[in-house]
């Protein structure tokens, strides 16, 4: 991680040099200074559950609504795609002002539908997600000698067939004194935060505080509906409220109202503002993989180095023996020779469906470029968990940007296969711009209809659909066509040898070649197996994933292993006089996607045992299918391009009469 720390410091120095009068801020990364008594507003997000993976709107349950009405907060495209729906709430605090027994509201008597929905949400273990100053509410629970912590709190609990709701919330807000003498600008967030000394230019002066923690303890307290009928929101509750998180008292009943209240206390903390996300990034299990990842990287690198050394020595020995023969001896030994030297006239024979191969390779390289750039900037702290939706926004941006590369590569590769024929470059560029996005559109639209049918906030709004289509056809497609046009004018790679008119007969093989193709994906799987578990846990169990530095290293190692596996596999195929290496080199490394999909099913069966409902299972399998298709294209592109360049280099080194 030293490289990323040094690079981040270099960025900070550069940003400081570029300062003029104001500080340098990244969106959402600067501290909000509040004086004593300033109002703090809590926001609510979608209700979530790891049992269903279907988010719902907070106000789909009979919770208290703010006096000014429910208003949506400004959300970026990434937040909408993630299913976040951030809205205002009636919970309001005053900075550094403790309050207790604050009456919030009394709901209307529960209707049959409201009572049924509440019971369903409690059965499905839905969590309420609150935010204060961009910090999610976190709940702590002591178990034996250690603490468990997670974001949000449950809607309610079921005890002996009776449903109870958590209607009283005990908030604890951790604050830190605003360091106005030396610090006014912060770049990054979470584990990638740094401070820049700029001086105080806010002009507020005085004592100020910043929020560095937001904790919640949910309680079920039996309120007396009659005693609050004359109270207004934020009035003092007439009797003391004892918040006992272990006991439950407020049972929900059809035809009975619900009473909500809260209390808040402020605690001055030593936690500095740049480190306030550490509590979320150090959750249970977040460091289990540190030594495992390092061990896996060392083993895989060692094995890959051994394979590479042996492979290079074998190739050099074959070339040396082949080139030592003069023409007469070569002609005399043609019948005795075997292996890759006998497929000279067929090794560059065009594969079946060359356009589809070029499209899949180009789109795979595009996905790989997007992944590398996104993870690289995330490792530098530019896409931290504090910036919700930033990761998806970055992925969309880089995917569209690499459309130029995809268009160029697909046309260039097709011209190389067809020996310079540029006809149809526009058609193939159009196809590559619609291939993976078309598959994604079909999968996500199908899943979106399921979410729409469930009235979930995870469903992409129609307006967002129009935005995505506009990005596709107004930005991605034109950039791909531009790349295709450049590729049609660029020089292509000429073959070092001519292809025979009559294809060479392929000898009978001892083992089916496609069986070897499937087996080749096991080594790339070993590279990312451990990291895959934490990624899946982050997506489906709501855990915060933040070690993008490790993920970047794993990604680079995966690329190297995929290239080496495909090289070895292609060489072995040529040694048994099988010149049909094009598609097989693609799927040799791309077959790792099959194992990832099988692992996803295993994860569903053994780690998501509580996932219930056909819709939830369909969502999981649909998103998993979308992920493995992207992985197959990216890893397959690496394998094919490395094999293609290797074959071209290998036969360029052979003396041909």
Automatic annotation (TrEMBL):
GO CC entries: endosome membrane; Golgi membrane
Location of the protein in the cell: Endosome membrane; Golgi apparatus membrane
Pfam families referenced in this protein's UniProt entry, alphabetically: EMP70
Classification via InterPro entries: EMP70 (IPR004240)
Entry keyword annotation includes Transmembrane: yes
Transmembrane segments: 290-312, 365-384, 390-414, 434-453, 465-486, 514-540, 546-574, 586-605, 625-647
Keywords: Endosome, Golgi apparatus, Membrane, Signal, Transmembrane, Transmembrane helix
Keyword DNA repair in annotation: no
GO biological process, alphabetically ordered: protein localization to membrane
Residues spanning the signal sequence: 1-23
Top-rank taxon, per record: Eukaryota
Membrane topology label: Multi-pass membrane protein
Family (UniProt): Belongs to the nonaspanin (TM9SF) (TC 9.A.2) family.
Protein name: Transmembrane 9 superfamily member
Provenance organism: Davidia involucrata (Dove tree)
